[in-house]
Each structure stands twice: as C-alpha cells, then as structure tokens.
Design goal:
alpha+beta; Rossmann fold; 3 domains; six-stranded antiparallel sheet; 18 helices; 19 strands; 35% helix; globular
Amino acid sequence: MAKLWFKFQRYFRRKPVRCFTFLALYLTAGSLVFLHSGFVGQPAVSQNQANPAAGGPAEGAGLPLLGDSHLGGGSRDAGEVSSIARRYGPWFKGKDGNERAKLGDYGGAWSRALKGRVVREKEEERAKYIGCYLDDTQSRALRGVSFFDYKKMTIFRCQDNCAERGYLYAGLEFGAECYCGHKIQATNVSEAECDMECKGERGSVCGGANRLSVYRLQLAQESARRYGSAVFRGCFRRPDNLSLALPVTAAMLNMSVDKCVDLCTEKEYPLAALAGTACHCGFPTTRFPLHDREDEQLCAQKCSAEEFESCGTPSYFIVYQTQVQDNRCMDRRFLPAKSNQLIALASFPGAGNTWARHLIELATGFYTGSYYFDGSLYNKGFKGERDHWRSGRTICIKTHESGQKEIEAFDAAILLIRNPYKALMAEFNRKYGGHIGFAAHAHWKGKEWPEFVRNYAPWWATHTLDWLKFGKKVLVVHFEDLKQDLFVQLGRMVSLLGVAVREDRLLCVESQKDGNFKRSGLRKLEYDPYTADMQKTISAYIKMVDAALKGRNLTGVPDDYYPR
C-alpha cells in the first residue's frame, strides 16, 4: 500500500498540471453535491392548480417597486411558482420548513382566514374588506394596474399603491400579487378559498390560487380616483343655471360612466357630469366651481348599465374629469415689458418650489425665472430657466438662498414653507434621484441620510428666519395650505405678483394642478427614517419657526408638523 502511495505521489510531482486538474474536479463534484441538497424539495401541486385551463394568478402591467420586487409580465400558473421554489432552494422556505408558495396542502386554511379577519378590522379606516372573488387570467376581476412582490407583499402596500393611482378597489392574490380596478367583474366565492398568507405579513390573508381578497378603498383620496382615464371629482349639487354651467346635455337611458365620459371627450370638454339618465359636459366655472362637495350617498343611484358604479341623480351629479386638456390656462409667455421689481419665490429645497412655479405659470400666463439654471426643468417647459434672474422678463424668481445680502436683492417675496420632515425627505430624493425620482434604499440606510439631516435640518429653520428678518415684503404660504385650498392660496400669491386673473383661469389651474412634478407613491419608504434624536432636534427647529411666525402676527406652522 505504501509503495502504491509513493508511486502516486511521485507521478503528480512530475505532472503538477494533472494534480491541479484532479483537485479542481474533486472540489467541483463536492460543490454539486452541496447544491443538489438545496433543490430536492418540491411543493406538491393540487390537480386544480396543475391544470393549465384553470389559469394562473398573474397577468397584467407590472409597476416599478423597491428592492426585490418582481414585475409581472405575463401569465404564471402554479407550476411556475412551484419552479420558483425549486430554483431558489432553501431560502424559499419558512422557518418551519414549509414552502412559502403553499401551492399544495392548504392545512390550516380556516385558521389563516380568521387571522386575516382580525387584520381586516384594523384596515377599516383606509379600506373595507368586501370578500373573496374568483379571478381568471383571461378575464381579470380587477382590470387596472397590477404588480407583484414575492418577498414583501402586504395588504397595506397593495391598498396604498392602488389608492395612489385613484382606484376604487384593491385585490390580493397568491400571497404576492396586487390588482387594482374601478369595478369588480367576477363572482363572489367562499371565504375558505382565499387561504394564502401574505409574503410580507405573517397571519394575513392575501387571496389564494386564482382567488382575490378584495378591498374597497375608502374615500380619503377621492380627488385622485379614476375610472379608466377619467379622474373622479366627487358628488355635487345641480348648478342653478344648468344650460350655462354645462352647455352640452344628452339623454342616456342606458347610462354608464363610460358612455358619458366618452361623449364629453368626443365633444372636447374636460368635465363629464352624470345625472341619472342624463349626461352633461362642460368646464369648471364660477357657475360650477366644484368646490362644495356633497355626501356621495346623495349621488348613490346605480347606473342602469353598470352594477357597481353610481350615475348620480337629477339633483346631485357625479362628476368626472376627462382626458381633454383645459386650454384656458395653458398659454404662457415672457412679460411684455421689463419688470421694475424682482419678486422671489423663496423656499427651502424640497418645499415644493417647482410645483409652485407650475401653478403660478398656469395662473398668470407668464414664465417664472430662477436664481440658478436647471436644464432638466428647462426641457420640461420652464422657459424662463435660461434667463438671467435679473432680466426682468419673468413674473417671479425661484430661489433657495438665505442670508441678508441675497434676500435684500429682491423687492418682495412669496415664502413657501413646508413640514421639515417632508421637505427633508423630498430634497434627499431629489438629490439622489432627480426632480421626480427616488433615492436608493442604500442611501437611506447608509451614512448619506444621517449626514444630510445633520446639515440640512438647521438650514430649514434659518432659511425661514432670515426671510422673515430681512425680506422687504414677504407673503408666507404654507405648502400644506396650498395643497388643501389651492384656489384661495394661489389667489393670494397671484395678487402679490400684481396680475389680475379671472376666477375661471384659477379653476382651470385646479384641474391641472399636478402637472409632471409629483412623485409616485409606489416607492414610499415603508419605515420612518427619522431616529429619536433627529426628531428631537427637528421639533426644536419647528418651535423656533412657529414662534417667529406668531411674533409677526402670522399664522403659526400647521398642527401636523408635530408631534410625530
């Protein structure tokens, strides 16, 4: 034996390349054995799920998500999810060793359903659970946008994303898929059939195989609700002079939202008002300003051609905004003569300055300028961006500057103030993701965010204090008030700018207030990035600014600035 080993050793001393080759093969074989152990588990598939005719759980347009989210680009049946479990091996299993896909044995289904109901009761404020519904890849129950996340899907995440896009319903399926829609186009089934746990929320039910757990979203975000391409505006009382307020009227015995919206779109009107069996089209005007919304129950008469939608009554109209652009406030130009005064639109970064410029340009018809130059904003239509800030050709000048010398260069100012918690996050997103982009998860979790708060939070306070101290004629506008009551607050801003604007033009601005300067809610952080020390520091700055405002007989900061 020793002689044989000696010969073997001498052979490889003479042939070192062969030695290394055999060693590499040995290591490769060992690795393959190790990897194989992670792929042997395969979840069982019930007959119903394995049958391709039953349809898979996912089909629809994917939406961008954070982190490990996966986009759904086509139909996926139970077999595909089974292959996911095989492909990713042990990490696809829970702590108890059971596959997260849960495609086979549904033991404890009723237990999970009961746990899910407890969570549903907590969800009542933002959404109401209405039942388990059949779903089919060939004919979806909810036909709006959809997205998937096979690691972090939760009920709230699905609801929030659907509500952000203005949908009435949110449905969860296969524990990881979210569907949005304006109406449910499927039949109700037994609660026991919605029996799959949410991937990102233990103990909560997120539908089942070809089954949707459906929620009706509450009306907190009604202003953004949609029906197809139309935006829901609310329920309103019939205007006094109907023919002047809404000049086009058509009788529709078989009324539906689609038919009325299509009619008004064809006639090129931005408003479609449903009044039972009549459809009215027009513009928002002082005769029909859409400011005094009524209880939606007053409009709750079902459409004759649609089971799940309201079509209003002869006295109370359901109003939608069509995709027709209201051109009454779209004309913009430079000032016809050089202005003798420079008016600042001053704000801390992230306080909504770009959005405020958009509103001012629509309301006045004149371009706004900037203390800086941003090519991306110029390309988006802010033509005053290229002018020198002292050119006198723009209605006001964007600036984030503070300090006595810079402030005293202006003859007057609109000072836009925003909740520092929101402003800091908005500016951090802009800094690392652009004007409507988002900072990466690594930036929030890395050293960048604490350092940013440490440097920028004091500036939020000193910026306001400096403008209050050195500004010659300062109009304070709170970002939150501008969002809540745009008509009144924008009227104040325009008045300071010295431009006479008709109310109808301001109403036109209201209907196009967002422009292209709003971030999607899809990538909202799912945790509070502010530590206790950060909150303590920022709260002190809020109190400082609040005291300074009240010391000048101005309204203090809004209540929602603190406490957190």
